[in-house]
UniProtKB/TrEMBL annotation:
It is found in: Cytoplasm. A motif (Gly-cisPro motif, important for rejection of L-amino acids) lies at residues 137-138. Its EC number is 3.1.1.96, 3.1.1.-. Its main location: cytoplasm. It is an enzyme of class 3 (hydrolase). A Gly-cisPro motif from one monomer fits into the active site of the other monomer to allow specific chiral rejection of L-amino acids. Keywords: Cytoplasm, Hydrolase, RNA-binding, tRNA-binding. It comes from Gilvimarinus algae. This is D-aminoacyl-tRNA deacylase.
Amino acid sequence: MRGLIQRVSRASVTVDGQCVGEIDQGLLLLLGVEREDNRASADKLLKKVLAYRVFSDEQGKMNLNVAQVDGGVLAVSQFTLAADTSKGLRPGFSTAASPGQARELYDYFVGELKACHPRVATGEFAANMQVSLINDGPVTFLLTA
């Protein structure tokens, strides 16, 4: 399971012209599910996302996590993160989870995220989404479980 986190001052997701999720300061999480993933890998990534220290403390060092800054998390399914880009000029998706497995693990991840964190917004699984963000820094990290 791969999670691309971006520290944002705000982010939103629109589907068919309607905003379906938005946050102010916090993390935009693009979540990719691979064939070998399971609930244990989802739990591992969730802990990492919530604990990852990407926000500045009083000295300007990245020492604070999203909860410590009272930030939101906007979780968006992103199957292209599971792409194999090692050969050629076109991505392969043989390592990506099937749509059914990916939906089940994405839904599980989001449910656990909502149970652990007070401010969570989401995109719409498998929809054509337009994601807007103001990347603060920019600060972006690829996390794996």
